[in-house]
Write a structure and sequence with these properties.
single chain; about 725 residues; alpha/beta; Hypothetical protein af1432; Rossmann fold; 4 domains; seven-stranded parallel sheet; six-stranded parallel sheet; 19 strands
């Protein structure tokens, strides 16, 4: 081995020069898309430093030991990026410039904490220092090849940076090499103690550096740009709200009924706030996985599946099922590839949960990449009313920080309480508000409200009468146990009856939702409030806050083709409802207001919502909101680039989502799929349980944890029709 062309960067035989040029091709796209980053970082040489970092980042792989590992296997037992960082003294710039480059290189795989734990060189008598000296000496045996690579700087800078970079002191001599750990990592820990530490620059350097490396390693050198949605829609005429959205610059609110084209309005807003060449990234945020899956399919129809990504905790399973054919192995490989691409700066449109946004501010591994990607981007927040006080506080605080990074927001809902709108508009300085005019609102009138005095159990015969009259009947209960009990009573009265709630295993719920158009009687929980494109003739529902009820009403006469349909609201709910709706006064107030209504015209809905929430959050919810905001701000303030939180992604998800478990009766089937590496099929057996249910089952010794597969098995009866049969306590899972 005596020349640069013989140096591999990957065990595939890809050379160092080939990999470096791939990474630099990605760099050119990042430089164009995120040109605002230099101003936000306060460093007009940010991209130049990034270019030098990419150019130098893998030169440590020239070491003979590393080359032997790639070709013959075995372990080299050192970090190539440490050796690469040792070359930064060749840069003829000031100390800060060299420090920024060295830090970017040395941390592009491992964070500073791990480097300090395993590779610090401050103690000359330590094994880490001896190993470093040994590996550095081995690396410098190839000084001629190192210099051969370094002499390519001028040509590569002309091609990828746009001008010749000539500030390298060449040729490199052995005495020019510095200790990368001492020069970068040790110094960085001291800088972190400075209260005026400007961390945004390092978020960008680490985030963009890692993206360039990861994308090029995945053989991706082009980042996709967006499209002109107006041409994709092909609408002959836009609705008023859509026309307004298309002409607004900057953040905006939209309040409009379900089925009024809000999604298209949001995309038209994004179009008007795009660059001419559609470089800005667009993030579409929804509260529930089912609604995200449906929106993903919708956006794929507009933009093509290559340009749209989906992010939630079951996204890989959803993608796998979308592409799964007879060749399950091929589908598994393809699903993994698709999701790996989606997690990077590659697709211009992403549909995701808010958790996927605010986890980035908790320091989860890779947060620098994700924050960098969201810089200057466009955010569409749909169904903003659906979140509790805690989640709303997290979303709002995230938006404030993203606003400082040049992001813009389009926030929309059919039922947005005024106090929520005021909070967001004040914090994000939103001055644009879009409402549907009265003349158009009249066309969306489709419901007559009847408040029935009593509980659902008192009106079973009336529901049966509607079933016998061949109406498509929707019954909504507030808890899973109530829905299960009502289903047992009613199921035999309809030849096509089903039960839908959140405690079905994934494969059973998926099958039910696929067949939902053929169901004549559906007993459900709040899962139907959003996302499902269903259309029934009549509704019977337990009482809930006004915004939840409006969403339930929207599942009846959805397409406005049946004249005026009746939606029945019971005045009394179940005993457990007070655990589900923490401020039950909202429910009581809603019922009282609806007693005075008949035909529910759309122009009345906002007034009803504002009356129910005229005092804003309850005392308890306001306390949760303020405490969450303050605590999250402290988390954000403590965020340090190049230093990851020890909490992994799965642990983070448990803070906000339910526990995922497998009913014990499916353990053998599940483990068989795992043993055969059919992981997506195995995921079909998961069912969510709440934290309260988890600890209750734990106390009953009804939980088994498999350390090998990291799986919870629960010793509860499961019925394919009824779902998980578990004694509910404080159950608010849908």
């Amino acid at each position: 081995m005596n020349k640069l062309d013989d140096i591999w960067a990957k065990d595939t035989g890809e050379t160092l020069m080939e990999h470096t040029q791939k990474a630099l091709k990605v760099f050119t796209h990042i430089k164009e898309i995120y040109n605002v980053a230099q101003d936000l970082a306060g460093d007009n040489k940010l991209f130049e430093k990034l270019f030098i970092s990419i150019f130098l980042h893998d030169i440590g792989k020239i070491s003979k030991g590393f080359q032997n590992e790639l070709r013959r296997g075995g372990r080299w037992d050192f970090r190539h990026e440490i050796l690469s960082s040792c070359l930064c003294n060749v840069i003829d710039e000031d100390e800060e410039y060299k420090f920024d480059v060295a830090l970017t290189i040395i941390t592009h795989h491992k964070d500073c904490l791990e480097l300090r734990e395993k590779y610090k060189t401050t103690d000359k008598n330590s094994p880490a220092f001896e190993l470093y000296e040994q590996k550095l000496e081995e690396f410098l045996e190839s000084l001629d090849i190192i210099n051969e690579m370094l002499f390519n700087i001028r040509d590569l800078s002309l091609t990828y940076l746009g001008y010749p970079y000539e500030k390298l002191k060449l040729p490199l001599k052995k005495e020019d090499v510095l200790d990368g750990y001492k020069f970068a990592v040790k110094k960085y820990f001291k800088i972190l103690e400075d209260e005026d530490f400007e961390k945004q620059k390092y978020v960008f350097l680490k985030g963009f550096m890692t993206q360039c490396d990861h994308l090029s390693s995945a053989d991706i050198t082009t980042i996709l740009y967006g499209d002109n949605i107006l041409k994709k829609l092909g609408f002959k005429k836009l609705m008023y709200t859509q026309e307004k959205a298309l002409n607004i610059k900057g953040s905006a609110f939209l309040t409009a009924p379900t089925g009024s084209g809000k999604t298209e309005a949001s995309l038209l807003w994004a179009l008007n706030n795009q660059t001419e060449d559609f470089k800005k990234r667009t993030f579409y945020i929804l509260p529930y996985t089912a609604s995200i899956n449906a929106m993903y399919k919708r956006l794929c129809r507009y933009f093509g599946s290559d340009k749209v990504g989906i992010l939630h905790n079951k996204a890989s399973y959803f993608i796998y099922k979308e592409i799964c054919e007879d060749d399950k192995q091929r589908a598994k490989i393809e699903a993994k590839k698709i999701q790996d691409q989606t997690k990077k700066i590659f697709r211009p449109y992403k549909v995701l949960t808010p958790h996927q946004v605010f986890k980035n501010f908790f320091g989860i591994k890779g947060f620098e990449q994700r924050i960098s990607e969201m810089t200057g981007s466009l955010f569409i927040l749909d169904e903003i009313h659906a979140y509790d006080a805690r989640t709303t506080a997290l979303i709002l605080k995230c938006c404030e920080n993203l606003k400082s990074l040049g992001a813009e927001f389009f926030i929309m809902s059919a039922t947005m309480p005024k106090f929520i709108k005021d909070m967001f508009s004040n914090c994000l300085d939103i001055k644009n508000f879009i409402y549907m005019p009265e003349s158009e609102l009249e066309n969306f009138t489709r419901h007559r409200v009847k408040v029935l005095d009593g509980k659902i159990d008192d009106y079973i015969n009336r529901i049966i009468e509607d079933i016998k009259n061949d109406k498509k009947v929707l019954v909504i209960c507030n808890s899973v146990s109530k829905a299960q009990s009502i289903y047992k009573i009613l199921k035999d009265y309809s030849p096509s009856s089903r039960l839908l709630h959140g405690r079905l295993i994934l494969k059973d719920r998926e099958k039910l939702e696929q067949d939902i158009d053929n169901i004549k009687l559906l007993i459900a929980t709040q899962v139907v409030e959003v996302s499902l494109d269903i259309d029934f003739d009549v509704l019977y529902t337990e009482p809930a806050p006004i915004d939840s009820l409006i969403q339930r009403f929207g599942r009846v006469n959805r397409k406005r083709e049946k004249g005026i349909c009746i939606v029945n609201v019971f005045s009394i709910g179940s005993e457990k409802d007070k655990f589900i709706y923490r401020n039950y006064d909202y429910v009581l107030k809603t019922v009282e207001l609806l007693k005075g209504e008949d035909i529910l015209t759309e122009n009345k809905i906002q007034n009803l919502v504002d009356k129910v929430y005229e005092n804003g959050y309850s005392v308890d919810d306001l306390k949760i909101f303020n405490e969450t905001k303050a605590a999250f701000q402290r988390v954000i303030d403590s965020l340090k680039p190049m230093i990851e939180d020890e909490m992994n992604e799965q642990e983070f998800d448990k803070l906000f989502d339910s526990y995922q478990a497998v009913p014990m009766e499916y353990k053998l089937e599940y483990m068989e799929f795992i043993d055969n590496k059919m992981y997506y099929e195995a995921m079909g057996y998961f069912v969510p349980i709440t934290r309260g249910q988890y600890f209750k089952l734990l106390n009953k010794n009804a939980i088994e944890y498999d350390k090998k597969t990291y799986t919870l098995f629960i010793n509860c009866e499961y019925d394919r029709e009824l779902g998980l049969l578990i004694d509910e306590v404080n159950d608010n899972f849908m």
